[in-house]
Amino acid sequence: MQTLISPEGSVLSGAKIQTRNVDFYYGSFQALRDVSLDIPPYQVTALIGPSGCGKSTYLRCLNRMNDLIDGSRLTGTVM
After folding, report:
1. How many CB atoms lie within 10 A of CB 19?
2. Average pLDDT per run of 10 along the chain, which is 79 residues long?
3. Dihedral angle at the C-alpha atoms of 71, 25, 69, 57, nearest 10 degrees?
């Protein structure tokens, strides 16, 4: 990962959000499979892809909105 400088001028290291080996299920349907991604601080990150590929599901995993859906489960790590 590259060295990043904050707006205040300090050196930043590492990712602001990290996911490792994330799988997400709606009941027995696996919507996400083995997603690992580092999202750096102070940068714009876009999730792009075709309709139905899991972009919104992944985003809902980051902000824990999927916790409200009965029968759904997440395996892996979101930090």
Report:
1. 20
2. 61 78 97 94 92 96 94 95
3. -170
